[in-house]
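Dear Dr. H.,

I hope your travels went smoothly. While you were away I took the liberty of generating a structure for the chain from your last submission, since the lab meeting agenda had it listed for discussion. I wanted you to have the full record in hand beforehand rather than looking at slides cold. The sequence, exactly as received, is reproduced here:
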Amino acid sequence: MDRDLLARIIVCCLLVAAFLTASSTGRFVGIVGPLSVVGVAVAMFWPRGK
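The corresponding predicted structure, in token form, is as follows:
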């Protein structure tokens, strides 16, 4: 598997875990939610190095 793709998947999983933790505790959901969405978009759509 491509290391770049694996790194992107790990970053997305960490961001989703951060959002799930924030939503389960009920704290900082308004901050973590939008940051998670932006973080996943940046991680997935950042141009790949050649």
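Two observations you may find useful: The chain has a mean pLDDT of 92. The helical segments are 3-25, 29-45.

With kind regards,
E. W.
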